[in-house]
Amino acid sequence: MLILIGIVLVPVIAIVGLRINAVLVFLALCLGAVLTQYVAEDAGWVMTLASPKVPSAGSVTDSSIKLGLLLLPPVLTAIFMIRTIRGGRQLMNILPALGVGLLTALLAVPFLPPGTAHNVTSSALWHQVTNAQDAIVGASALLCLLVLWLQRPKSEGKHGKHHD
After folding, report:
1. Which one of 26, 43, 103, 149 is at 20 to 30 Å from 20 when CA atoms are compared?
2. In a domain, 22, yes or no
3. Is 3 within 8 Å of 75 (Cβ atoms)?
4. What is the span of the domain harbouring residue 116?
């Protein structure tokens, strides 16, 4: 249970503490999920060609590749977006950050090492999270879109056409 709580809270604390735009990290995590689904097999094939001397290029490597493809986009996005949230927008950033943490758990736990994944998936908290996964994904996505739309820069005033 502590592992699951850690997987959820580490991104939330990092995003809020470093004032990272949670909406962009959420979108990058979604990109990571797409990469995992569509690119992981080819990435595994490339890794096998690049390191043919590795005898056990089985499921552990496959899971590692998938976990890397899943987490690389949000981690890089978080690094590049440090201190991009200022002022009152910080409060608006908390709920999307929680969405990032919950979605990270839902997407990453299946790619954890088998023992760790079993420890997480056998907990009652994991069953509650998976039972609410539709609500978590849907609400997080909708909330992130709303926050994204609200973060739109305000116009600095109405400017008409320039006349020379």
Report:
1. 43
2. yes
3. no
4. 2-150
Q: pTM for the whole thing? A: 0.84
Task: State the pLDDT at residue 118.
Answer: 94
Coil vs helix vs strand at 37: helix
Cα 149 to Cα 69: distance, rounded to the nearest angstrom: 27
Half-sphere exposure of 88 (CA within 13 A, CB side): 3
pLDDT under 70 in the chain at which residues? 44-60, 156-164
Instruction: Answer yes or no: is 156 within a domain.
Output: no
**DSSP letters along 75-141, please?**
HHHHHHTTT---TTHHHHTHHHHHHHHHHHHHHHGGGS-HHHHHHHHTSHHHHHHHHTHHHHHHHHH
User: Into how many domains does the chain fold?
Assistant: 1
